[in-house]
Every structure is written in C-alpha cells, then in structure tokens.
Here is the input.
Amino acid sequence: MGGLVAHDDGFALLTRVADTNKWKETAAAIIRYTGGKQTFRTNLTGTATHDTAPLLDGQLTWNGTKYGAYFVVHGASRTER
Here is the structure.
C-alpha cells in the first residue's frame, strides 16, 4: 500500500494490482471502498508501463472533490509499435 485516505463511509487506497502489460507486472491503482464494498478502481499506469518495483512508494490525498496521488517509478521502459 502506498497511501490511504479515510472517509466517513469507507476509505481509498493507493496500491498495486494485477495488470495485463506484456511484462506481467503490477499496475499502480487507486481503489475506493464504501460500506465495505469496492466502489471503483482506477489504474494509474498503462499497459505499456514497465515499472519494475514490487512495492509502491507514494502518497494519496483527497481535497473533497478529487484524489491526488504521486508515486516513485523505480524503472521504466516503453513498448515500441
């Protein structure tokens, strides 16, 4: 977990999730839980990203309207087409 925001009705996480990129790496994502159920999940890295870190060094914040996240990419590569 790279970040956590507590809400009155649940919480949001900045974390890593399974991804379908060609390296079978994980993706950085924000996941929101409301009332004990997942409300949404938004991947922050795309399928062309090759972030080699198994951990997520970052922060998550909420301004009352939007989430903000930053995280460190420890290694990256691009897929050429």
In short: The first strand starts at residue 3 and ends at 7. The two ends are 32 Å apart (CA to CA). The mean pLDDT is 83.
